[in-house]
Amino acid sequence: MDKIALVVGASGITGSNLAEQLISEGWITFGLARNPNNDITGLMPVSADLLNPDSLTVALADISPTHVYITSWMRNETEAENIRVNSLMVRNLLDALSPKHSVQHVALVTGLKHYLGPFEAYAKEGFLPETPFREEQPRLDIENFYYAQEDEVYAAAARDGFTWSIHRPHTVIGKAVGNMMNMGTTLAVYATICKETGRPFQWPGSAAQWNGLSDVTDARILARHLIWASTTDAARNEAFNVVNGDFFRWSWLWKKLAASFGIEAAGFDGTIHPLEQEIANDGPLWNEIANKYHLKEPDLNRLASAWHTDLDLGRPIEVMTDMSKSRKLGFTIFQRTDESFFDLFEQLRADELIP
User: Of 69, 113, 175, 190, which one is the catalytic site residue?
Assistant: First the structure.
């Protein structure tokens, strides 16, 4: 039987990398988004609004996926609204697919806010969990849209009989334009601005993040993890952390990132310097840089998501993730984190998004 994948959020960092990997492995692959990605060879774009059941019914009329990968979410002003909107998106999608009886597995991508708390209480006193994070740690006693999304998947699985997997990456590093959480490209843009203006490449975050251990998730690792879990019997109906497999300190990596742009790193100086404030007025400057170097994206806000980078780098605790559950079940793929960033920077240059 053909493996037919529906990638929800195929224009984002996770979804686009997943779609490319699925296609390379011979899957029939559909990519669903409000504005579908037409840049991936072999991807069949599907335009639909996850908040509109009629839109989904029409868009999916002739599509009967065997595997569904949900990588999309929508940011809202409050966590209550995050819960309402993001759970509804999952429910509408799975309700639209239910009559087809084709779905064998649903994979949902969430993240470490499962352990750290939602945006409104992110890594705050009273919500600081024990690290490294392990999948068996209980949910926090606080509302969280990740929990609501999971519950929608569990309910639909009980109704329709498919298996599921939950994937919790930490800061996904990969290329996407217009993405809401994009640390790798944000730092590349910041480094470019520093090089162009002579400003210091100043560490923006906390002492705990500068000195502590950390990890991240390469989008290519996440893509292969999603496919592995959705096609491996032992991994069905399980939640998994997914990271590169190495640990690092930002005090080490920050200097390497600076060196790759030919600039000098400025480390933690006792004060947090939020990146959102640092580049708040740099929209016109980025437009000038884009014109000077003939870059394809002159809108700084389409490339940089400083608010989310500040959220991650400003945390008051070190954050690392245990991968032993996946390793024990057979997922052994590994990625050096410095090379994740260097590979991304090369891709951004090749695609004329940074000089």
Answer: 113
Contacts of 156 (CB under 8 A, 6+ apart): 91, 94, 95, 98, 106, 162
Which residues of the chain register pLDDT less than 70? Answer: 1, 37, 123, 125-127
Helix axes 250-260, 183-197, angle to 10 degrees: 60
- pLDDT score, position 122: 76
- The residues near 281 (Cβ < 8 Å, ≥ 6 apart) are none
Active site residue 113: yes
- Domains, the chain, ranges and CATH? 4-172+216-242 (3.40.50.720), 178-215+247-319+334-349 (no CATH)
Torsions phi, psi of 166, nearest 5?
A: -115, 135
pTM comes to 0.96
> CA 17: distance to chain centroid?
11
C-alpha span between 47 and 67 (Å, rounded): 18
pLDDT value of position 138: 94
The catalytic residue among 3, 115, 124, 146 is 146
CA separation, residue 189 to residues 11, 131, 184, 206, 280 (Å): 20, 31, 9, 20, 13
Helix (H) or strand (E) holding 242: strand 238-242
Q: What is the pLDDT of residue 125?
A: 63
pLDDT of residue 258: 98
| Widest Cα–Cα separation across the chain | 59
Q: Are 79 and 44 in contact (CB under 8 A)?
A: no
Q: Are 197 and 263 in contact (CB under 8 A)?
A: no
